[in-house]
Amino acid sequence: MSGNDVLLEVEDLKKHFKVNQGWIASLMESFGGGGPDYVHAVDGVSFELRQGETLGLAGESGCGKTTTGMSMVKLHEPTAGDIVYDDTRLSEASDAEIKRFRQNAQMIFQDPFESLNPRMTVYDTVAEPLRIHDIRNETARVQRALEFAELLPPEQYFNQYPHELSGGQRQRVAIARALVLDPDFIVADEPVSMLDVSLRAGVLSLLDRMTEEFGLSVVYISHDLSLLRHMCDRLAIMYMGKIVEKGPTDQVIENPQHPYTQALINAVPVPDPSVGRERVELQGEVGDIVDVPTGCRFKDRCPDYIGDVCDQVVPPLEAKTAFEQEVACHLYESAEGYDPYEELEGRPSAAAGDGAESTPADD
Amino acid sequence: MAQKEQSSQSIFTDLDDASTDAEVNKWQRTFRLWRETLREHWGMLTDELSVKLSMLTVAGFVVIAIFAPYIATHQPLVRQYQGDAGVLIDKWVEPSLLGADSEYLLGTTAAGYDIFSQLVYGTRAALMVGIIAAVFTAGIGTLVGLVAGYYGGKVDDALMRLVDFLYGMPLLPTVIVLVAVLGPNLWNIILALIVLQWRSTARVIRSQSLSLRERPFVKAAEVAGASDWHIISRHLAPNVLPMTFLYGSFGIAWAILAEAGVSFIGLGDPNTVSWGTMLQASRAYSALSFGAWWWFVPPGICIGLLVISGFLIGRGYEEITNPKLQ
Ligand SMILES: Nc1ncnc2c1ncn2[C@@H]1O[C@H](COP(=O)(O)OP(=O)(O)O)[C@@H](O)[C@H]1O
Ligand code: SF4
Ligand SMILES: [Mg+2]
Fold this sequence. Notes:
The complex is a heterodimer of chains A (363) and B (326). Chain A contains 13 helices and 12 strands. Chain A is an alpha/beta fold. Chain A has a domain at 6-22 and 36-258: 3-Layer(aba) Sandwich (Rossmann fold), CATH 3.40.50. In chain A, α4 packs across α5 (138-148) and α5 crosses α7 (167-179). The two termini of chain A are 32 Å apart. Chain B is an all-alpha fold. Chain B has one domain: Orthogonal Bundle (MetI-like fold), CATH 1.10.3720. Chains A and B meet through α3, β6, α4, α5 and α7 of A and α1, α8 and α9 of B.
């Protein structure tokens, strides 16, 4: 279907979580009709991950980056949509195919203080994936992975417990664990945001080496555009569970087209990964992702709002005539001849954007 | 695996996978994980003086229970003398400890049994009930809690409804009814206690597992392809173990108390001596009104000591598992 070098394809992925409510509320609901509410954490994103590329997922906190990343390594069952790995749809994959996927998809988590079992030694932590997959030569591999993660000499770390390590060392152990199975791709969810600023550069250069020397594909998740700019070949900007702009990093950073991307970039004053920036502050509030608005999700904060079409027609992420990256915004002319105004006329009542018809979720 | 060989770039390409080097055995490692965990708990527990003393007390009773035949001076269920024409003895021998001229340290009961020997053998019954009931209640409760918390959903609902149902039953009355139906013997008392008591452990362990399963280290194991059982046994169980021990030590205390209670109202095992049956006999013969306090005070003290020790050890554990109490 797609080019040979595509490793993983995310197809219109949706992940909705049931809003946690007390049993009284659920009871009233079952009498009063009307389904339960859902958090639209990820609401229809599509992108591909190519062999050996680094892809950045950016956006404010809560926009669905982690949920997307976790879905990519099958930590969530998608509410709708699918993930295609190596021509296999994960929703239809056999047990053997899932096992192979598990061996090739790894994740590095945000908080190194939480991602290592406090009761397991470094050796056991790194060796665990090998044991799960019955891979031989355990000790040599663990040693090699720790060496690569620059925990030297590795033997010295074998019997240490997480509480004996610094945050930076823990994150390196987590990286070694992710690498030890020799995966095809890794999802790194804010890999340095919890680390001391002085330790970040070291861990980042390690991650850099990982992609450059071993042709690994990596998905970097971060709210920090200045960091992603240095690390990634391509960028996807997310807002309220959707991708609003996607393209080569240079294009997106230097020539942002979506009003949201422009706002994000203007909010980054220091384009330097070694300077810690925890949050991007923008004007206005992020909209409600339980009761998603009709039309464009950015409409309430958008400085370029152009009326009814923004209010009522969901802008699809598509190629535009004027530039290279794909953008989900009505300001630009579609390269494929899609006309949002036709839809506007077709639906004068215009109550329904696609977000309103929510697909039922299981959790 | 085979297809991985295509990608030449790998940090592992030069490793010869056919060779098996000196790998540390899987079981050895699992064993070590558990041993380290236990050692760590032990270290934290024995920091506290009250816990240390309680452990000494329990250890003392354990020694007495093991060596009961050597410590006891007489057979506990053999009458030391017969009255005329087999009539029950109606007067007891006073304790030699109080200077009476007899061979019985704590005297005899009205039925002619040596109280000291009964006390010594009663330790066996108390510890057996306490330990067996506690091991099973904590064990079953932990397993149920882990499964309910890890799987969630319908499994969780079903198991927790069962727990709710059990919570509706008061401990002592239910044990009394069960023992009355099943027959008065020590095993039925233990069984009845187990059936009722795993509920509290299950509930607490479940809520711990529920939060543990969302922790990133469990997610990491899941990403690596770990099976459910692997995650439960390697990642959840070692982290809920302090709670298991906490409820286990409370369980010992509750079980001993409950056994004494059941025996005291006359549903004890007639073929075993326990502190509870001793108390029951002393009441039946109105030892109190005859001033024969050496009959019922020693078993009372023993029950108290063992039960308090159990609770103190539990408290010590509680402080480990819940730093807020410190
Ligand atoms: N397991 C979950 N259950 C319910 N809601 C969730 C869950 N995970 C994430 N969410 C919600 O989904 C939204 C997106 O979260 P997340 O993917 O973590 O965003 P990001 O990583 O971009 O900060 C948030 O509103 C969050 O509260
Ligand atoms: S579609 Fe309209 S509201 Fe949305 S970003 Fe573009 S201009 Fe702004
Ligand atoms: Mg996140």
